[in-house]
Design brief:
The complex is a heterodimer of chains A (140) and B (492).
Chain A: H1 5-28, H2 36-54, H3 56-62, H4 65-88, H5 103-137
Chain B: H1 5-22, H2 27-54, E1 57-60, E2 71-74, H3 76-103, H4 109-128, H5 132-151, H6 157-187, H7 192-198, H8 206-222, H9 232-238, H10 241-266, H11 268-275, H12 278-298, H13 303-324, H14 327-358, H15 369-372, H16 374-388, H17 394-408, H18 412-438, H19 451-469, H20 472-486
Antiparallel strand pairs in B: 1-2
The chains are: A mainly alpha (140), B mainly alpha (492).
């Protein structure tokens, strides 16, 4: 895509906003439409645009495959970890009420952390999927 | 901690899967997978004890009472299934170490064990949950893990067989989801207990009937009822040995359990067998499936493929029991779900050991096995006898109950069909036994399989005989489960 100057310039300009919007959807999911899944996809689309414009090699310099694997697994662990934490604090699995002294505050903490885990896993898995497929087309 | 048992069974593999995926080499993820399946097995046994002490156990996820939240509801039927799944997983995982190193290699091992754990997680989740939509979610988890595991086979045909199962399995899952959607539109709830309460009033509704049709068809695809079984033989044949052992023993059984749960609990015996003539559909299909799959398996040159077809036939026995719509038929079906799991896992594990030493599972690889690998061969023979239904093995217990159930209804032709099915099993098992005893081994220098494969295999073989002689455990639980299910609705 070296000859598509306009695409590259506009893309470079857009990527930060795409990612910012991803973070907005992530952390606003507590109060309005949004949440970890949507946010993860939006955040990952920043990487998708970058890969399309500048090539897989440049993306691999930013995030390695191994790093993405670690992130995607740790997202699941964060999710399940919240459930285990709530069990250890005397509630049922994923009962956020017990996470703080005040049940409402507990619900906020619980859903935030869980959605963060979801966001991490979705964003890293989407990027990983793209990289896996893109790599097959590259001359080795 | 004991109050958390229903979720711990499912949670342990969920936590372990990402951990296993991040590890390196083959040994560490294997240790994690084995220990976690043992942990889940202990939890399932404790759950079964709890259910027989206290009756139905209800666990509300996140502290949200059903129907607002998702509940796990454990009665005899799913406690029995959980013991089967986790028990076989804890035998197959130790077995997998050598078998996987041989067939898959160290590099992909972490992902393999992660996928195995996800499979166990999905199957346990489907079994434990009391929410119709949650079943679909876990169905997808277990199916995605299955597609990955199937594709890891050494043979390149594993990829196409996995892909065709992906297509068929997704159709099955989608049908189930459409059916659940119809029920949700009519009742406004996804909770199984709630559905069971509200559906009887709506039994005239065409939407509910269509939903029933979608659900039953979708699940029958997943459990490989004839003529929806075409994905199964290739999938089992080309998958790695450890995967075939676990899948063949548990995956279709869980689908059977979902069918039972839907037909008996959600829709109720009255609706399923009187309003809708479910027997007229299931029984003929089961009979045709039983006879045709058994006949086809006689002609198979590959023993693993032969056993895959035999699985289709054995599933037909189970469906036959369900199709009777009586407590005795259901008892026989649940017994056979458990017993067939125990014997098929033993047979597939014996074949895995053959493939480990001989490099394949064709009939010619079985030649002279009684001399070169006697322990493996005798394990296969005992598993085969169990499959035929010889007394003192588990196979006899469930077939005996099935015949009793058919006689109770006065279905004499069905009794004959069951016996003919056993004779066909004698023929296809007999071919292998004949090759093992009387043919000359091609290479008499081959030695017995290593202890790492033999010990788990023989534990299962002994279980085959033990549970065939001491039938108290399985029969009592299956009868109690059938009584709970036949009572219809949900025991509060």
């Amino acid at each position: 895509m070296n000859d598509h100057l306009i695409l590259r310039v506009v893309g470079k300009f857009l990527i930060p906003y795409v990612m910012l919007f991803g973070l907005y959807v992530q952390f606003h999911g507590d109060f309005g439409p949004g949440g970890g899944f949507q946010a993860g996809v939006i955040f990952a689309s920043g990487f998708v645009i970058y890969t399309l414009l500048f090539g897989l090699r440049s993306t691999q310099q930013i995030v390695s495959e191994g790093f993405l694997r670690v992130i995607s697994a740790s997202g699941v662990l964060i999710y399940a970890g919240v459930g285990v934490a709530s069990m250890l604090m005397g509630g049922e699995f994923l009962n956020y009420n017990v996470l703080a002294a005040n049940p409402i505050a507990g619900q906020h903490i619980g859903i935030m952390v869980i959605e963060f885990g979801v966001g991490l896993t979705v964003a890293s898995t989407m990027t990983l999927l793209l990289m896996m497929f893109a790599e097959r087309g590259l001359p080795s | 901690m004991l109050t958390h048992l229903p979720v711990l069974v499912v949670l342990a593999p969920l936590l372990a899967a990402p951990v296993a995926a991040l590890m390196r080499g083959a040994f560490a993820p294997w240790v994690v997978a084995t220990l976690v399946s043992w942990f889940s097995f202990v939890c399932s046994l404790l759950l079964l004890a709890q259910v027989s002490d206290q009756g139905v156990i209800v666990y509300s996820m996140g502290g949200w009472e059903a129907p607002w939240g998702i509940e796990y509801r454990i009665d005899f039927a799913n406690a029995l299934l959980l013991v089967l799944i986790t028990g076989l997983a804890s035998i197959v995982m130790p077995y997998a170490r050598l078998s996987v190193r041989h067939e898959i290699g160290d590099e992909r091992s972490p992902m393999f064990y992660a996928a195995m754990l996800l499979l166990v997680l999905g199957l346990c989740g489907m079994t434990a949950t009391g929410d119709a939509f949650n079943i679909f979610v876990f169905l997808e988890i277990s199916s995605l893990a299955t597609y990955t595991l199937l594709a890891m086979g050494k043979d390149r045909r594993a990829l196409t067989s996995s892909f065709s199962y992906l297509v068929m399995g997704t159709i099955g899952g989608t049908f189930y989801l459409i059916g659940v959607g119809f029920l949700y539109v009519m009742t406004g709830t996804l909770n199984i207990a709630d559905l069971a309460e509200r559906l009887p009033a709506l039994s005239d509704s065409a939407t509910v009937r269509t939903g029933f049709a979608f659900i039953v068809t979708g699940i029958c695809l997943k459990l490989a009822l004839f003529p929806l079984h075409l994905w199964l033989p290739n999938a089992y044949t080309f998958a790695p040995s450890a995967v075939t052992a676990l899948l063949g023993a548990t995956a279709t059984k869980v689908a059977v359990y979902i069918l039972v749960r839907m037909v008996f609990t959600v829709f109720g015996v009255e609706f399923s067998f009187v309003t809708i003539p479910l027997s007229d559909v299931l029984v003929p299909l089961a009979i045709v499936g039983l006879l045709s799959a058994s006949s086809v398996s006689i002609m198979q040159p590959n023993v693993k493929r032969m056993l895959a077809y035999s699985s289709v036939a054995q599933i037909s026995y189970i469906i036959l029991g369900i199709g009777m719509g009586t407590a005795m038929g259901l008892t026989a079906a649940l017994l056979h779900v458990f017993n067939h799991g125990v014997m098929k896992a033993a047979l597939f594990m014996a074949l895995g050991a053959v493939s480990y030493r001989m490099g394949g599972t064709d009939l010619k690889h079985m030649n002279g096995l009684a001399r070169t690998m006697p322990l493996t061969f005798w394990a296969f023979v005992i598993g085969g006898l169990s499959l035929i239904g010889v007394p003192l093995t588990v196979g006899f217990v469930s077939k005996w109950h099935l015949i009793l159930a058919a006689m109770e209804l006065g279905w004499w032709p069905v009794v004959v069909v069951i016996l003919v099915g056993s004779i066909l099993a004698v023929i296809y098992i007999g071919r292998v036994v004949e090759a093992g005893f009387f043919k000359e081994p091609e290479d008499s220098t081959r030695r017995e399989a290593p202890a790492g494969l033999l010990i788990p295999l023989w534990i299962l073989v002994i279980a085959n005989i033990w549970l065939g002689i001491d039938t108290r455990l399985t029969v009592d639980i299956a009868e109690a489960a059938a009584a709970q299910l036949m009572a219809g609705g949900v025991v509060r």
